[in-house]
Amino acid sequence: MEGCVFTKKDYQSELKPIWCPGCGDFGVLSCIYQALAAVGVPPHRLAFLSGIGCSSRIPGYTTAYGFNSVHGRSLPMAIGVKVANPELTVLAAGGDGDGFSIGGGHISHAVRRNPDITYIVMDNHIYGLTKGQAGPTTVPGTISVTTPYGLSETPVNPLLQVLASGCGFVAQGGTHDLKGLTKMIEEGIRYKGFAFIDVHSPCVTYGREEDQSKELKAKSELLADLNHDPSDKIAAYRIAEEYGKKLYCGVLYRKDGLTELATMHKQVQKNAKAAGDYPRDEVFKRNFLVH
Ligand SMILES: Cc1ncc(C[n+]2csc(CCOP(=O)(O)OP(=O)(O)O)c2C)c(N)n1
Ligand code: SF4
Ligand SMILES: [Mg+2]
């Protein structure tokens, strides 16, 4: 299959999505198919892991190896798969609740290990599957089944959290711009290291009016039009600060070649060689990518 040209159809499973009609996750799925075809990932070399939630159903709608795992555990599963078989292209996905509430402890550890995994969060600012409870990114003031008088907590800012953890690829998109989102996912898959993409994907059943596609489109601005330089981390922080207020779409931050890790890798390689354990170090090198 090497050298073959793949199309969207090659990644489509026979399962029909059971999401509510109009759910943003349909758009994300379609962008993932297109991005995989653009990169030319052979379907038998693709692994896709998720947690639990409406969004976490996504691997089942692809022909990838993978599964819906346990709530909040897409990243440990994905890292395990990458370690076991470094030849695979590995995707992880899930919801805002899955990634930043119950799974919140995993993200910074995934980032600091920098495995070559693309992590897509379908951020609908609510727990969709369990019928509309407030989640980590729910906007203050939101009336939900668990906040009948309005939410009075400060939301998590996924972009700031991931940037501050040291992630080398941080992007934000939405299902109001599928072309832009496809490009972003494609770039994330091609990126050598851990890539994080926060996707505003509306929940049409429990989500707020302000978070639906039409409203997203009206408030969204393309980073490319603002001449944003993705290598400028301070500028990326400023954009990330606007999460929940403005919707800047594109790659906020991109860093190629994590030099601290490269230095450490060389030392590990020396230590392993000195200990006569060189083959094991080769596995480390392939998994935890050092440039
Ligand atoms: C350990 C555990 N706790 C709670 C649940 C119940 N539960 C399933 S999905 C979910 C929230 C899903 O929200 P999110 O991750 O945002 O995904 P969405 O459905 O919005 O796409 C919860 C609380 C569970 N399955 N397992
Ligand atoms: S409940 Fe919301 S997130 Fe879940 S499938 Fe329906 S629209 Fe999508
Ligand atoms: Mg959600």
CATH H-level name of the largest domain... which superfamily? Thiamin diphosphate (ThDP)-binding fold, Pyr/PP domains
Tally of helical runs: 10
Largest sheet, strands/sense/barrel: 8 strands, mixed
Return the CATH architecture of the largest domain: 3-Layer(aba) Sandwich
Separation, N- and C-terminal Cα atoms: 28 Å
Average pLDDT, all residues: 93
Share of β-strand residues = 15-25%
Overall body shape: globular
Name of the CATH first level of the largest domain: Alpha Beta
Any key phrases for this structure?
single chain, 291 residues, alpha/beta, Rossmann fold, 2 domains, 8-stranded mixed sheet, 10 helices, 8 strands, 36% helix, 16% strand, binds thiamine diphosphate, binds iron/sulfur cluster, binds magnesium ion
Describe the protein.
This protein has helices spanning 25-39, 74-84, 96-102, 104-113, 158-165, 178-190, 213-219, 233-241, 259-274, 278-287; strands spanning 46-50, 65-68, 89-95, 117-123, 169-174, 195-200, 220-222, 247-254. With 291 residues, it is α/β, with parallel strands linked by helices. The protein has two domains: 8-256, Thiamin diphosphate (ThDP)-binding fold, Pyr/PP domains (Rossmann fold, 3-Layer(aba) Sandwich), CATH 3.40.50.970; 258-291, no CATH class. An eight-stranded mixed sheet has the order 2-1-3-4-6-5-8-7, with helices on both faces. α6 (178-190) links the parallel β5 (169-174) and β6 (195-200). The longest helix has 16 residues, at 259-274. The radius of gyration is 19 Å and the shape is globular. The model has no long low-confidence stretch (mean pLDDT 93). Bound molecules: thiamine diphosphate, iron/sulfur cluster and magnesium ion. Thiamine diphosphate binds at residues 52-55, 71, 94-98, 102, 122, 124, 126-130, 135.
